[in-house]
Design a protein that fits this description.
Number of strands of chain C: 0
Strand content of chain C: under 5%
CATH class of chain C: Mainly Alpha
Shape of chain B: elongated
Distance between the termini of chain C: 20 Å
Mean pLDDT of chain C: 83
Low-confidence stretches of chain B: 343-347
Oligomer: heterotrimer
Order of helices and strands of chain C: HHHHHHHHHHHHHHHHHHHHHHHH
Chains: A alpha/beta (355), B alpha+beta (347), C mainly alpha (540)
CATH topology of chain C: MetI-like fold
Number of helices of chain C: 24
Strand order of the largest sheet of chain B: 6-7-8-3-9-10
Largest sheet of chain B: 6 strands, mixed
Chain lengths: 355, 347, 540
């Protein structure tokens, strides 16, 4: 295409760009652009980021709105999407925080957020009955409703005594019969970071030498571990209680073991709630946090498909997790685990290269 | 109607000078054929007038309206210029009627008037009743006429025809030429007609513009192009049969039989041209030029006798055939005219 | 098209896609305190990084070759042969694009699991197996998954490519050659740029894909390294520096594409109907078998898995109700992105066609989004649009512009357009290039403005290419979540991430019913379009 005339072109361009600007300034739809910015008490809404399945987040938001009259605007993400997710987003939004409250379904990334300076401390009366082990001494986060790292085994393939410790992975008796999720993501990454902190680097190193020598299958994630065990592809593996529970609900021939009952205990990874520094609705953020930390929330999580384990006493525990009452909980200093996480992650990446 | 003026128009495209300092006046209502070989810039000249190409220098005006100076002053779609493209450029997805009414719709002509004008335009090219056809349902000649009708329907101030007959056969061409001539006579629209065909150009125009290498070489009546071609190129494209070097003046002029007309000029000689009808045969002893009959060709109402003298071959118009090899003389009825070399412009 | 639209379109494209990409470049050269540094590039001194790159290229190269092997023959068969049941094959061909690659992989995990139907019913009785898709060690399974997901891109572009040239060329060649020889020497030559473009698309989508290699537990690839930089170290600068190989690879590939594909190969003007299809004769059963095999692997089998899960559809209403906002958002956003991307692509393609330095630059820049890993793109979009200050000022208008874009559906549209723009640009560019400029000039001289000329002359002549562009962007947008979920404002949830989340939670009722609704939404219009009598669809 040639351009025979240039008269008025620059004027036309200015007008066109002005129109464009107006177009962009116009909200895409009216009601969705009405986000308030920083005007604390007056707003009637609160922004929640939740790495939580919609089957929980929606009823929860509806209940909160009903009880307080405050509208919850939420963005959710689940670890299943294999994306960098809400934590990365919160860090990227630091220049202008858009979120008030973050409900994380695990804990290590919450500590990374704390270390990145994204959070601000809070205190909630509803956290009073939560054990100190699940609360940040500095007040940046509170844990509740936890998942346990458990052994899932196929009852048709493991007919004798099932494995009962994490180190069964390196037991030659189970050579080629066990699987572990790639420990760079999700709760498996947290699990190894916990061990890194508890055992030290040398013992973790030895563990992985043993794992590879014992032909432990490295699966993509905990869901894949569960699926392969449930489908009879491999006898047993490590996964989370929520993954085990959906397999159980689906009628698969699976059972679980809470490992290391005689040793260090089973690792529990709680949900965490935290408050974003400089969020748009701080007053409502506090109300939402208080609401999340009610005992009812733990009860809801315990009853649902993910069968999460209340950290408080006196709340009905999920029924599908055999042996839960006898579980010994592994004590963890979470802030210390958060501090070693990048190091353990980097080491694992090198160790797993080519695997 | 207004006269169309091009004043020292220069166009450069892709680093090449396509039109070089071209000045041209086209009279109001004139039909001016532009004759030249392909690649000489004649299509570009049309596109400058249409506003599809932007000149580097020069002015284009239609009466009082300045089209280019050289910045475009009137955009193409407001010039009132219509064009028949070499490949016709009929819109394949529109019917004949929609092809014609497209421009009228753009100019907000009311529907009733559009219908009438489309019908009239189609009738003027003998295509009444073809409204509902699509271009791919038409023959070559019909498409040609639709393209012409599409150009005419908007009552343009200037009509540009870009080799419109280059892809039709000889019989159809005569028919279409007469359509174009008739239509032009009736509408009196200022028309530029680009062609590389001498007969088309000579048949259509009172004047013919001859172009080569981006320059306008001569604009003149067909007879004048023939009688006084500005240079060897014009002589050739306008059909002057005999071009040679000669010495002497007027009646004393004599050809230099050993000089190649395409070669350098011998001492004191200059290039001249003369048509075959301005030569006649005579006795070998009684004529300034003496030669030998190489061939005689029957041309319907006359015979062309080719006489060889030295390296020259002269074409002479005569009434009867001659025997090949016969010694014969040639003399002119009027003296040959001196012409410039190809590099000299004499418009 | 108005005179200034090419300029506006270029500006819009720069704003939506190039600014975030340029911002990644900025990030890669500045440390956390904003000081200029090249430290992030020292990663390239490590051989480990080059091994990541090599593995990524192996995956992408393998997937591209496999997608070509499946897609090009399908495209030719659909476009130019007398293959039976064409509408069925065409409809099935688009299905894989609708499903996030992740979902396709999971469907196959189900089909080829030890307790899956294929192993228990087909293979076990004859003593084979069990065969497990998930256990296809490393690359082969991953490459197969990517190829099955992305081969429709090659197939659709080939299909359009072989229908583009004036059939007279092929007919002329048929006088001296057998039909397939004539096809190869004429139409195929013209179609090649389309096929190659499809291959380039597949290469980059495979190169930047994280979820599918993840499914096969393939670590040590470039996208996983970028993921790790974000997730474990929150190191934006390092992650940005790691996108450089993608950009570099895209430049090399585009250069190669330009070298092999003569621009003049696009044949101008098309005035007659399609050439008669090439008769397959005795090859018909073979061709049918091939089409059926490919469609089964890539579409019918996953659909069968979904149908089996949803059967007997008693949870249909509830599933639909549960996904209603996401379904509406998805269709709205995909349609909006497709429309905007095509409209912008028209302007950008026009500017590219004018050539010059800007034209050449845009030609490359228009393909650049292909090379940017979606998570990097999503984060760049956040950093660019979510801000209080810019250009050294914190004037109120900056916050307002930020709000108007970042907290509304616009940011989703930006993300979708920034990811899918090459899909729109290439078909539009080739389509517009196929229109004889004289047709536009004739309209201009007839008195039509540029806008009218575009709407009344150019548009009807290139609708096929524009429709393809629209459709590709729409399809891809429906399945996109890698970039959009990072920027998704509250209230703009879409289907894809929820499908995956629900799958993860064994809510197969939700997954299957809604995935089927998505497929139906797209496949039925195609079938209806293909099955209406030809008479009402005049060729142009």
């Amino acid at each position: 295409m040639h351009r025979p005339f240039s008269s008025h072109r620059s004027a036309a361009r200015v007008v066109a760009f002005a129109l464009l600007g107006a177009l962009l300034a116009a909200p895409f739809t009216g009601c969705k652009a009405s986000e308030s910015t920083g005007d604390a008490g007056a707003s009637a809404e609160v922004v929640l980021y939740a790495s939580l399945d919609d089957s929980y987040s929606r009823p929860f938001a509806e209940a909160f709105e009903r009880d307080t009259g405050i509208k919850v605007k939420f963005a959710t993400d689940s670890e299943a999407t294999k994306t960098t997710g809400l934590v990365t987003r919160l860090i990227s939004e630091r220049a202008r925080p858009r979120c008030d409250v973050f409900w994380n379904n695990e804990i290590v990334q919450t500590i990374l957020l704390k270390n990145e300076g994204v959070l601000e401390p809070f205190s909630s009366p509803n956290a009073a009955d939560i054990p100190e082990a699940y609360k940040d001494p500095d007040g940046y986060w509170v844990g509740f409703g936890a998942r346990a790292r458990v052994i899932i085994y196929n009852t048709e393939m493991v007919t004798g005594t099932p494995p009962a410790t994490f180190e069964a992975l390196v037991d030659p008796a189970w050579k080629g019969k066990a699987t572990l999720a790639r420990p760079l993501n999700g709760t498996t990454a947290s699990h190894i970071a916990v061990l890194w902190h508890a055992w030290g680097k040398d013992r973790v190193k030895a563990l992985f030498d043993g794992l590879f020598a014992n032909d432990v299958r490295i699966s993509a994630g905990n869901a894949q571990v569960m699926m392969q065990v449930a489908q009879g592809s491999i006898p047993w593996g490590f996964t989370d209680t929520d993954d085990f529970h959906v397999a159980l609900l689906d009628g698969k021939p699976v059972d679980l073991v809470f490992p290391d009952a005689d040793g260090a205990g089973t690792l529990l990874l709680p949900n965490t709630v935290c408050k974003i520094k400089g969020g748009p609705n701080p007053a409502n953020a506090q109300k939402l946090i208080d609401y999340i930390l009610r005992r009812e929330t733990e009860a809801m999580l315990a009853k649902g498909r993910s069968a999460q384990i209340p950290v408080r006493d006196g709340i009905a525990r999920p029924t599908g997790l055999k042996g839960l009452d006898a579980m010994k909980v592994m004590p963890v200093d979470w802030n210390a685990v958060g501090a070693v996480f990048p190091t353990s992650h980097e080491w694992l990446k090198e160790r797993l290269r080519g695997k | 109607m207004n006269p169309l003026e091009l004043d020292r128009v220069t166009v450069r495209l892709g680093g090449r000078t396509v039109l070089d300092d071209v000045s041209l006046s086209v009279g109001a209502g004139e039909l001016l054929p532009i004759l030249g070989p392909s690649g000489c810039g004649k299509t570009t000249l049309l596109r400058v007038v249409a506003g599809l190409v932007r000149p580097k220098r020069g002015r284009v005006t239609l009466g009082e309206r300045v089209f280019n100076d050289p910045r475009p002053r009137v955009p193409a779609h407001e010039r009132g210029v219509a064009m028949v493209f070499q490949q016709l450029a009929l819109w394949p997805h529109l019917t004949v009627a929609r092809n014609l009414s497209f421009g009228l719709e753009a100019r907000k002509v009311p529907e009733a008037e559009r219908t009438t004008r489309v019908a009239d335009a189609l009738a003027s090219v003998d295509l009444a009743g073809f409204e509902a056809r699509r271009p791919d349902e038409l023959s070559g000649g019909e498409r040609q006429r639709v393209a012409l009708a599409r150009a005419l329907v908007a009552n343009p101030d200037v009509l540009l025809l870009d080799e419109p007959l280059s892809s039709v056969d000889a019989m159809l061409r005569d028919e279409l030429l007469s359509v174009i001539r008739t239509v032009h006579r009736r509408l009196g629209v200022t028309t530029l007609y680009v062609t590389h065909d001498r007969d088309e150009a000579m048949a259509l125009g009172r004047r013919v513009a001859v172009m080569t290498d981006g320059r306008l070489v001569q604009v003149d009546a067909p007879e004048a192009l023939h009688r006084r071609p500005a240079n060897r190129f014009v002589a050739r494209v306008s059909g002057v049969q005999n071009v040679f070097f000669a010495v002497g003046e007027d009646d004393a002029m004599r050809p230099v039989p050993d000089a190649d007309p395409d070669g350098p000029a011998p001492n004191g000689a200059r290039l001249v041209a003369i048509g075959g009808h301005d030569l006649e045969l005579a006795d070998a002893d009684d004529a300034p030029i003496e030669g030998e009959v190489e061939a005689s060709v029957f041309r319907g109402d006359h015979v062309v006798v080719i006489v060889r003298t030295g390296v020259l071959r002269l074409e002479v118009r005569d009434a009867a055939r001659r025997d090949v090899g016969e010694r014969i003389g040639v003399r002119w009825l009027r003296p040959p005219v001196p012409i410039g070399s190809d590099s000299e412009v004499n418009a | 098209m108005s005179r200034s639209w090419p300029w506006i379109a270029v500006g819009l494209y720069a704003l939506i896609a190039l600014v975030p990409i340029a911002y990644l470049g900025y990030l890669s050269l500045h440390d956390a305190q904003g000081r200029l540094t090249t430290a992030f590039y020292t990663a390239y001194e490590s051989s480990a990084l080059w091994s990541l790159l090599w593995k990524s290229v192996q995956i992408a190269g393998g997937a591209t070759l496999a997608a070509l092997a499946l897609g090009a023959p399908i495209g030719v068969l659909l476009g130019r042969s007398s293959l039976w049941f064409k509408p069925v094959w065409i409809a099935l061909t688009v299905v894989p694009l609708l499903l996030p690659p992740y979902l396709m992989t999971i469907c196959w995990f189900y089909l080829l699991s030890p307790d899956g139907w294929i192993n228990t019913t087909l293979l076990a009785p004859v003593g084979i197996g069990p065969i497990e898709f998930q256990r296809f060690d490393g690359l082969p399974g991953c490459i197969a998954s990517l190829a099955l997901t992305y081969y429709p891109i090659v197939a659709l572009l080939t299909w359009v490519g072989v229908r583009t040239p004036d059939p007279a060329f092929e007919e002329a060649a048929r006088l001296v050659r057998a039909p397939w020889g004539a096809f190869r020497r004429t139409t195929w030559v013209v179609a090649r740029p389309y096929v190659l473009t499809g291959a380039v698309f597949v290469f980059f989508f495979s190169l930047i894909n994280y979820a599918v290699p993840y499914q096969f537990s393939i670590g040590g690839i470039l996208p996983s390294e970028i993921h790790s930089q974000y997730q474990a170290h929150h190191n934006h600068g390092q992650a940005a520096a790691l996108t450089v190989p993608f950009v570099f690879a895209s430049l090399v590939l585009l250069w190669a594409e330009r070298r092999t594909v003569a621009r003049g190969a696009i044949v101008r003007g098309r005035t007659t109907a399609d050439a008669p299809p090439i008769r397959l004769g005795f090859a018909q059963p073979l061709a049918l078998l091939f089409a059926a095999a490919v469609s089964t692997l890539a579409a019918a089998a996953p659909i069968a898995v979904l149908v089996k899960m949803a059967w007997p559809f008693d949870g249909f209403r509830a599933a639909l109700e549960s996904f209603r906002p996401e379904l509406i958002n998805t269709v709205l956003l995909a349609a909006g992105a497709a429309t905007l991307a095509v409209v912008i692509a028209i302007g950008v393609a026009t500017r590219i066609a004018r050539g010059g330095l800007l034209g050449g630059t845009l030609d490359v820049a228009g393909m650049l989004p292909l090379a940017i890993p979606p998570m990097s793109l999503g984060i760049a979009l956040i950093l660019v649009w979510n801000r209080q200050s810019a250009f050294g000022t914190d004037a109120a208008w900056i916050a307002r512009v930020s709000d108007a874009i970042y907290t509304t559906g616009w940011i989703m549209l930006f993300a979708l357009i920034a990811r899918t723009f090459p899909f729109a640009l290439r078909p539009v560019f080739y389509g517009l290039g196929g229109v004889d400029p004289a047709l536009r000039e004739a309209a201009t001289l007839a008195g039509a403005s540029r806008t009218r000329t575009f709407l009344r002359i150019t548009l009807p002549l290139v609708w096929r290419s524009l429709a393809l562009a629209w459709f590709l962007v729409f399809l891809f947008s429906v399945g996109e979540y890698d970039a959009t979920h990072l920027v998704q404002p509250p209230g703009w949830a879409v289907v894809a991430p929820r499908l995956i989340g629900s799958f993860h939670n064994f809510r197969h009722d939700l997954v299957s019913n809604n995935a089927l609704v998505m497929i139906a939404l797209v496949v039925f219009p195609i079938l209806i379009y293909l099955l209406v009598p030809k008479r009402s669809r005049r060729p142009v």
